[in-house]
Amino acid sequence: MGNEAVNDEELVGELLEAGPIIVYPPLPEHRVRRRLGKALMITGGAIALFVVLYVVDLLLSVGDVPRGVTVAGVEVGGLTHADAEARLRTQLEPLLIKPVTIRAGDVETRLDPAASGLELDWPETVVQAGNQPLSPITRILSFFTTREVGVVKKTDSAVLTRAVSELAATTINHRAVEGSIGFLALSGTDGGVTPYAIEPKQGQTLGDRAAAVRVLSDGWLDPGGVTLPVDVTPVKATLAGVQGALDQIVKAAVAKPIVVRGDGKDAVLNPDDIARSFQFFARDDGALEVRIDQHKLQLAVQDDLVGTQKDGKDAQIVFANNVPAVQPSEDDRKINWAKTFLPLTEVFRRADARELPVAYDTTRPNVTTEAAGALGIKEVIGEFTSGGFSGTAATNVQALAAKVSGAIVKPGETFSLDTRSGPRTEAQGFVPAPVQEDGTGPELIGGGVSQFASTLYNAVYLAGLKDVDHAEHDYFFDRYPPGRDVKAMETTGTSVDSKFANDSPTGIAIEAGVSGNSVTVRIWGTKRFNVVSAAGPKINETASPIEFRSGAGCVTSVGQPGFSVSDTRILYDVGTGAEVRRETRNVTYGPKSTVICI
Fold this sequence. Notes:
Blueprint: H1 8-18, H2 29-60, E1 69-71, E2 74-75, H3 81-91, H4 93-96, E3 100-104, E4 107-111, E5 118-120, H5 122-128, H6 136-141, E6 147-149, E7 153-155, H7 157-172, E8 180-185, E9 193-198, E10 203-206, H8 209-219, E11 226-227, E12 230-233, H9 239-253, E13 258-261, E14 266-269, H10 271-277, E15 278-282, E16 288-292, H11 294-305, E17 316-320, E18 323-327, E19 332-335, H12 337-340, H13 344-348, E20 355-357, E21 360-363, H14 369-373, E22 379-387, H15 392-404, E23 408-409, E24 414-416, H16 417-421, E25 432-434, E26 443-445, H17 450-463, E27 466-469, E28 499-501, E29 508-515, E30 518-525, E31 529-535, E32 539-542, E33 546-549, E34 562-573, E35 579-589, E36 594-597
Parallel strand pairs: 1-6, 3-11, 13-20, 33-36
Antiparallel strand pairs: 1-2, 3-4, 5-7, 8-9, 10-12, 13-14, 15-16, 17-18, 19-21, 22-30, 23-29, 24-28, 25-26, 27-28, 29-30, 31-34, 32-34, 34-35
């Protein structure tokens, strides 16, 4: 329209064509101004009131904890820092510093935080809550919302590390306990026991100590406690495997005694004897294997059953009126413990008739009566006598002679003097005596037995039997031919063995006896040789040294020089007289000192 002139009639016509028109009366200008002023006054008043309230709220809360702040659920908003700290100490500290629950593998324990370097820092907690916000919106919202502030912790790492180490050593760490079965003795019973399962338990050690300290430091306030890492040592047996062995085997085995029936004498395996014999081994499949130590069962009953056994005895040659006779042999009869206990597991399962018959092994002797009679022992083939001993030495020679006399050596066998005599102890009839045959040297149990060994050697020598091993004395004794003596004991008490072999086609027997201060040894058999001894001259003589001694035990004695000599044994066939062979032995004796007491 702009500056163009408009025809009123045309305009009205157009408006009428557009539709009905509502015409309001015009608004007076003063009414508009009045309404606008009222709106401005209300708005200004509200703003002024808000500002006043904001300023008042701000002034009233300067330096206090912001409104709506909570610490672990305790409201501290609007309090001064000091009051907030006091309220937290009163309401929270008793709850938060209680013992910490710690789980480590199969262990659950408690840790005192106060004694372990774990503390609460209340001033820092309050500081962490912050100061009053300036934002009016934040302040308004604080009337309708809350803000949780966490507790500030502090840790003394050195103290906590020590506490963790002590906890590991005393509580957390433990060795693996393999599943097994134990036994409780029943009072008022004769060997009764009650078996029980020993529950398997894994072994464990606390893992990384530094990591454990960190976990505790970070999480000791968690309501659910703290879980620490451990290194686990597994076990094999399961509780089900242990219980299976207990129910299926052990309970029945120790329910009642077992009677072990020997020939003429019984013994009893009480439940505690059976329990002691059990051995338990965990298997990879979780089962518990039950084994029986038969030796322990044997120990429990052998004293009662030993009398049902019988020691074997070789046939021996006895001599009466210089005539050899055979003393019969006896079979050896001993308990075969393995066979005796073989049906044990079956007996375990029985409620009654719990008996085990003893199984015996019978062994024929090395020399039977029949064999001794067929050995061809009919005449003396070698004999030697020596004398000059007395006192306790005579006792020892007599004891050794008694052990050797009657011995039979079959063709091809080797005789050992030490084996035949056994240990030379007081229990075997030997006594302390001077070790040397001339009465010198230290007193030892069995001293002087070299006299018998030399006599035996010479009898064997003259019988033409094969020498296997022997040693001469350190110096010469004139009671024997040079080169034909034997040492049976060192001055230290160590035994020196001597051996010979029966290289003849028939058996031989040894007769030995003591009469007065002399001992005689005869070798019986079938004579094959006539024996001649040829001694060589003494050579390389060394002078006897002189020793001056003092003291109550000193004995003056005359020494003798040392020398070397040879001995040749010549064997002639007893039937033809022809020489069979010669055997030469070279011997060197040391000098014997002359002792002068001063």
